[in-house]
Amino acid sequence: MTVLHPAPRFTLIDGLKDTLSTALGGHLLDAHDEHGELLFTVRRDAIEDVLRILRDEHGYQQLMEIAGVDYPSREERFEVVYMLLSLTKNSRIMVKCTASEDTPVPTVTTLWPNAGWLEREVFDLYGVLFDGNTDLRRILTDYGFEGHPFRKDFPLTGYTELRYSEDEKRVVYEPVELAQDLRQFDFMSPWEGADYVLPGDEKANTPPVDDPKVQGGQGSGGKGQRGRSCGRRDGQGCTSSARADGRSRRPARA
Fold first, then answer.
1. Rg, Å, the chain Cα set
2. Closest to 127 (Cα-Cα) out of 141, 143, 147
3. CB of 107 within 8 A of CB of 133?
4. 34 in a domain, yes or no?
5. Residue 74's domain is classified under what CATH number?
6. Of 53, 66, 71, 228, which has the fewest CB atoms closer than 10 Å, so is most exposed?
C-alpha cells in the first residue's frame, strides 16, 4: 500500500527567498542562501513578529535550535540564530539578529515553550540577555560559575576546576593547573606547505644506498646451510637445520 505524504521529498528553495522576503517586509535586513538553506537577517526588536509570521503564515512549525555566535570586533558582537523546520514543506531556514552585552533580545517563549531552555543555553554560554524570559538562569555551567565560556575572550582552560576532595569529603574549587603547556596547532595541511619540517620528512633527504646488503652467505655447514642447533661435539641427538633444497637431515644413530 502506497502512503502519500504532502511534504516534498527534496527541499525546494527556488522562489522561496523572494516569497519570504516580501512577507517579512521592513523587518528584513538581508536575505541570501548558504549551503542550500536560506538565511534571513532581521531587526532585533522584530524577531518575535518575524518568527510568528513564519510559523503561522508559512508553515514553519518547529523551532529546532537557537545558537549564538561571537564576533568580538563588531559593535554588536553577538549573533542569535534561530533554526526553523517546516514539516509540511520539508524545508529548513535560519533567521538571525545581532545583539550586544547590554541589548536584550525579545524572548520567543510566547511562540514555542521549548525556547526557554534554548535561550538559557545562549545566555549561559554567551551572556546574551532575553527580554521576557522569566527563568533566565544558567543551564550548562555549574552553580556560581563566573563568565561565559563560549565567548572568544574566555580562556580555553578556564579559570577554576573542581574535584572531589577525599580529605574534605566534598567537591572543592581550585585554580587551573596544567600538567603541560597548552599546545598550539596551526591545522595547516602538509600539502599546502609549511615553514617547518614535518615528522618523517627528514627521511626524504637521505641519499639512497649504493650497495644494498644481502642476507645469507656461506656458513660452517656449506652454502645455504646453517650450523647445528646444539653444542655436542659428536653431533648425536642433534637435529640439523633445513638445507637449501628444503629437506632436513638427521644424523644416523651410533
1. 36
2. 147
3. yes
4. yes
5. 3.30.460.80
6. 71
